[in-house]
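Notes from hallway chat w/ T.B., transcribed later so I don't forget. T.B. wanted the structure written out for a chain they're using in a teaching module, and asked if we could keep both sequence and structure tokens in one place. Agreed to drop them here.
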Amino acid sequence: MSSAAPASNITITVDGRELSVPAGARLIDALDAHGLRVPRLCYHAALSVAGNCRLCLVETGAPAKDATGGVLRNADGSPQIRWSPKPSAACATTVSPGLHVRLDSPLARDCRAGTLEFLLANHPLDCPICDKAGECDLQNFAAANGRRCSRYSETKLHKPKNLRTLGPRLVYDAERCVLCGRCVRFCAEILKKPVLSFIKRGAKAEISTAAGHPLDSNYSLNTVDLCPVGALTDAAFRFQMRVWFLRKTPSICVESSTGVNTWVWHREGKILRITPRRNDAVNGCWMTDSGRARHLRIHAPDRTEEYLRNGLNIGMQRAVSAVQGALTDAAARGKLAVVLSSFLTVEEMLVLRKLLNNLGGNALKKKVFLPARTGEADGFLLTADRTPNTAGAWLTGLFDRKPETKREKREKLTKILAAGDADTVLLFRENIIKDTETGQKNTELEEILKKNKTRVIYFTTHTDDMALLADIVLPALTVFEKSGSYVNSRARLQKFEQVIAPVGNTPIATELEVLARVAGEDALTTPDAVWQRAASDESFTTPEFRAAFATGNAATGGDAGADAGGKIPCCIAEIPANGLQLNGADWLKNDHK
């Protein structure tokens, strides 16, 4: 081991090669860190060790010692290794100084081949119709480590297929199950609800639930991600598309302020499924079932695809000119109100702040609202704040108060409009005349808007009652149709990539591009351009924004700002794939006013 190795590391020898690994680590994890992937089916880094599959068997040994504890050495001075007479499971072996491991010895290869032969004895050969084909661990390991032909001539045991008794969103094929127990341990250890368990014995064993108690958790589809074979499949994705036809793009779930990291799987402009992307600082390996369905309304018939003024399509350029004129006129008269949205990206918020400062600065702040979208937190990944970027609004200085509840926002806005203190409203994705959760309409506010002939400028993804009432309607894009970044509830800045092109036949610009042109900042139409300005121009940001990227404030946990060296990123690429922890001691508390 090199003298520069960290004190917490130890040296082990794998197939004659010395490796520095963390002391106390599981052998299977230590090998993974060096790119030496040992086959496994039951093991998962986020779950307890079960040792069910016996596929990760390796040879282990240690230096032989004499009666005094001294290491016995060969003639060439190398230590004599005393190998264990039986193979060891890498998942259940803890590394220790001087540990020797053989991964590719005849015994290790024979153990893997023999284990796979037993696993495949009753396994159906239905890979051509199995939804796990292309990402099946058993298939991959059998090809790499299994025997080339089967010696099993008896009739295979046929277990039940296409069972939907485990849960409403799950399909269980018992004959494919290798009894790894990952799904069982997930329910017991992560959900803290031991819904799933093994029933029967030996070759007839299956996974089942207690009668009348299906796995109806909002996290049930994580068992599909965990399943190494095609035993558990997603009922909605089943038979939709072969995985090798799909591309996956990293994204962020906008269901709540947790900022769950995701992979979005898509083909030819259509999203087929969403799965969790591992980030131990945010969501681990998990995500909600409801978050996987966020893409279903992208191609809905009511998507807003045109730039409308009084119901007529006027195109983006004329829409930008119309918005510029309306906002400038209203702000000059002190008659402008703004309703923000925490679904705007950090980049859009920075440009919007620039626009609002140009229009009125501090005089406009009393008429700027940030509605709170809330729900019941589940104590795991789903937070009470059902938006992805409330913290981003505080960080950018776009909003410095607590978001108003629907009632507070409605009462304040109604009072301002009724008194004639505002005759123009700039709306971002917020239907102010209808409660999106209850569906109840605010007829009082609707009548005031009509009576006072209030000019409404509305950014929206879908056509609704508010869009029909608005003077100018501008199409907004979903998180899948643009790129940018959000700040989650723990002050972690995370980027996401565009997955598909904007829907519709009419070219649609991002809100960032539209806002930049309205603000007269044509150079700020891309996220990279915004970050470059933020890094070079102090007047474009706030002291809180710049301080958030300083190094070493432990108030938010972790090594805040260290990933960026204490500097504001100059482009999206400088934000690490797993996010950038910011300093949030002040602005994240949100106790300014």
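Follow-up for T.B.: Confidence is low (pLDDT under 50) at residues 1-6, 553-558. Might be a good example for the class.
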